[in-house]
Amino acid sequence: MSPSTATRVVQAYLDHLTVERALAANTLTSYRRDLVRYVETLAGADLAAVTPADVASYLAGLREGDEQHPPLSAASAARAVSAVRGLHRFAVREGLAAQDPARDITPPTPPRRLPKALDVSQVEALLGAPPTDSPLGLRDKALLEFLYGTGARISEAVGAALDDLDLAEGVALLRGKGGRVRLVPVGTFAIAAVEAYLVRARPSLAASGRGTPKVFLNARGGPLSRQSAWTILRRAAATAGVDAANLSPHTLRHSYATHLLDGGADVRVVQELLGHASVTTTQIYTLVTVDKLREVYATAHPRAR
User: Fold this and answer.
1) Euclidean distance between CA atoms 281 and 267, whole angstroms
2) Pick the catalytic residue: 79, 139, 141, 153?
3) Is 200 assigned a catalytic role?
4) Is 259 one of the annotated active-site residues of the chain?
5) Is 285 among the catalytic positions?
6) Any residues with CB less than 8 A from the CB of 145 and at least 6 apart, and which?
7) What three-state secondary structure class fits 63?
8) Residues 171-207 pLDDT 10s
9) Is residue 124 a contact partner of residue 262, using CB atoms and an 8 Å limit?
């Protein structure tokens, strides 16, 4: 199998992921980059002739780096190995190879990082930061309230269309990763902020544009971008005096999940609200709440120390 043939197999595999698995565009871009590097590492070897030792050597190279590539973190290396394993499974399934040399290769386990969450008072300060005396201020207030009131990812919030909102019923349709759609409740504070924006601000913003069904608009009347939404969050944090070290594009989503669990919500319910495919992803938030319980116990119980 020539390098060009290997490249065609990679392209066929990526097409399969796009059509059959509906992976997100960012994930596909990462997989493409990982697999191009893998094919280069094979130096023209037939995919059918690759051995487990070859794949293990590739993994080691990811972690060590070389003249062209810096060392990858455990998380990035795990993603790259996942892409390679998927490629070899695809080659076997399509009859391009008899054996899967990556089947028993175990990707590195990324360290379990706890999401950063703000406490309730910090969230309230953040949500109260945007001024509401201008169309853009009303939009910023509505966006932040919507993010915290629904647990939406920033991409889901800026992707929301007017028809996805039913504020009378207090629900919103969110379109998440992999084409998954979920219906989530919207809190009363978020409903009030979004209604104020839709009535008092969006019409004037929309007048500058060419017409879009998206809920959140930029100053030119077009759809708000993820980057602009992230800028709005950072600006509000600076106004509210929230430490930038505790800030990320998912800050309000992480806070939403943590506060629900602190309030007694079942982890399976939070899983559905967040749109996680696996409850394992959601369970990392339970570690955050256990840390808080431990802190309260240590300071409140007379025999804790």
Assistant:
1) 10
2) 153
3) no
4) no
5) yes
6) 127, 187, 189, 190, 192, 193, 194
7) helix
8) 999 998 777 899 999 999 999 999 999 999 999 999 9
9) no
